[in-house]
Write a structure and sequence with these properties.
This is Transposon-encoded protein TnpW. By secondary structure, the chain is α+β, with helices and mostly antiparallel strands. 41% of the residues lie in helices and 24% in strands. A two-stranded antiparallel sheet has the order 1-2. It starts with a helix and ends with a helix.
């Protein structure tokens, strides 16, 4: 059974437009865009945690 708070949060995330971050470092401007998959099985926090643990060899 899905938690209603989680379901609501994921629904809101799916409706958001892509996030874009523009940052200038030195003489270079970096533009980063991110999107959320409607088929995602984990939220962003869980994914970042999994990637960090995987990279650290744990």
């Amino acid at each position: 059974m899905e938690n209603s708070k989680t379901g609501t949060c994921m629904t809101r995330i799916k409706e958001l437009p892509p996030l874009t971050l523009k940052r200038q470092i030195g003489g270079t401007t970096y533009i980063v865009s991110s999107r959320f998959s409607e088929q995602a099985k984990e939220d962003m926090v869980a994914k970042v945690k999994r990637l960090i643990l995987s990279d650290s060899g744990q």
